[in-house]
Design brief:
Shape: globular
Largest sheet: none
Structural class: mainly alpha
Mean pLDDT: 86
Oligomer: single chain
Distance between the termini: 59 Å
Low-confidence stretches: 1-6, 401-405, 407-411
């Protein structure tokens, strides 16, 4: 497709990235994040009921992840990107208007649905628009900055939630969260999209079959699909337990948010380094994962606030590796089912994350949070070894392919 003479590639790139960064920031500027567990408690919910809500949230995302990705390949991806925040806004509004277990449950279903609609669709739209502009090589850098924008929004939410809550209670933080979602939806309508949806109405089932067929046919695609959850799931689950890890170092509860901001800052820096990280090959990515795993283990078992600096460095490494794994997958997808395959990878991440929650519950209870964090670094060492081993196999295979054929012997 050719570009309009009135729009240069540079102008198109600026519009795409500005919209993406604004969308990523607003999508995570949710002031309910730090206080929604308190809302549930203050409404009278038991710990079992709160846990069941988290489970419902996870199950909603798992069930809808792949079908929503296939739908994004069959229709407009921009449509799904603005529809998702609208559903999330409706869920948050229910929470503060009619706080009850039923409203919280429906809100989590709406939130999980909104998240599933955007997952896969966003990566596919950004990659294909960059490719159209001749800038597909910038994908990791652009998505790394988008992730950093989202993390900055989370930190801003943590800083703003206290004052806003003190001023207006749960209705105020709820209204601010709904407003952020609606602004994210409005921003999504500005995404450029030059891809035509499926004209024959084949629907999401046809695109789902096409995506799975590409994964079955291409070994490199399968490997990239597996790498995404291998990199992103464990540290994504550990993030939920970082407040407990911080408290275990002996600091006061007042200091916990400040040290959490330190860890989030480390992850933000990791996203910003994605542009430089694009130069890392398979061996470099393996080294990054191994180094981050060792640093995480050292920082976690130290049991001191100073050790949390190492945890922040490790989270930065894992964030960088997560962006690079996504970029690796996008480079290997060649068919039309890009959002579908991205959603398959995200499904693997979500399912693995749920499994990590279960493992951590047992390990954290038995040995404490520092040791549990250190144990959870082990899968990254295994992934690093497998990546390095895959590199050696690829080199040997290339050497065999390039060697001249040996003359056959005749009797």
């Amino acid at each position: 497709m050719t570009l309009s003479p009135t729009r240069t590639p540079a102008a198109g790139l600026r519009r795409l990235t500005a919209t993406l960064y604004g969308y990523a920031f607003l999508d995570d500027l949710i002031l309910l994040y730090p206080v929604y567990a308190l809302l549930f408690r203050d409404t009278g919910l038991s710990l079992w009921q709160i846990s069941s809500l988290f489970a419902l949230w996870s199950v909603t995302g798992i069930v809808l992840e792949v079908p929503s990705g296939a739908w994004a390949d069959a229709v407009s991806r921009r449509l799904l990107l603005w529809l998702g925040p609208v559903l999330t806004a409706a869920g948050f509004a229910l929470w503060v208007l009619v706080p009850s277990y039923a409203a919280f449950a429906l809100g989590f279903v709406l939130w999980g649905t909104g998240g599933a609609l955007g997952s896969g669709a966003l990566q596919a739209l950004v990659h294909e628009e960059l490719d159209r502009l001749g800038a597909a090589g910038r994908y990791a850098r652009v998505m790394g900055r988008a992730r950093a924008a989202g993390l900055l929004a989370v930190m801003a939410s943590m800083a703003l939630a206290g004052p806003v809550f003190a001023w207006g209670g749960y209705p105020a933080v709820g209204a601010a969260s709904v407003l952020a979602c609606l602004l994210a939806a409005a921003t999504a309508t500005r995404f450029p999209e030059h891809r035509e949806p499926a004209a024959d109405g084949a629907g999401w089932s046809a695109t789902l079959r096409a995506g799975l067929a590409e994964a079955r046919a291409d070994r490199s695609v399968r490997g990239a699909l597996l790498l995404v959850p291998a990199v992103g799931a464990v540290w994504g689950a550990l993030d939920e337990y970082t407040p407990l890890l911080v408290r275990e170092t002996g600091v006061s509860d007042r200091a916990v948010p400040l040290l959490l901001l330190l860890i989030w800052a480390g992850a933000t820096v990791g996203g910003l380094l994605a542009g430089a990280g694009e130069r890392l090959g398979r061996r470099g990515l393996a080294g990054l994962l191994a180094g981050a795993a060792l640093v995480l283990a050292a920082g976690a078992v130290s049991g001191t606030p100073a050790g949390l600096v190492l945890v922040a460095v490790a989270f930065g490494g894992f964030q960088l590796a997560t962006v690079l794994a996504d970029a690796r997958l996008q480079r290997r997808i060649e068919g039309t089912a890009r959002a579908t395959l991205t959603s398959v990878a995200e499904l693997g991440t979500e399912a693995t994350t749920v499994a990590v929650y279960g493992v951590y519950a047992v390990a954290g209870t038995a040995v404490g949070h520092g040791t549990a964090f250190a144990w959870c670094a082990t899968p990254y060492l295994v992934t690093a070894v497998l990546l390095a081993g895959g590199r050696r196999r690829a080199v040997r295979q290339a050497a065999r392919n390039e060697s001249p054929p040996q003359p056959s012997r005749t009797q």
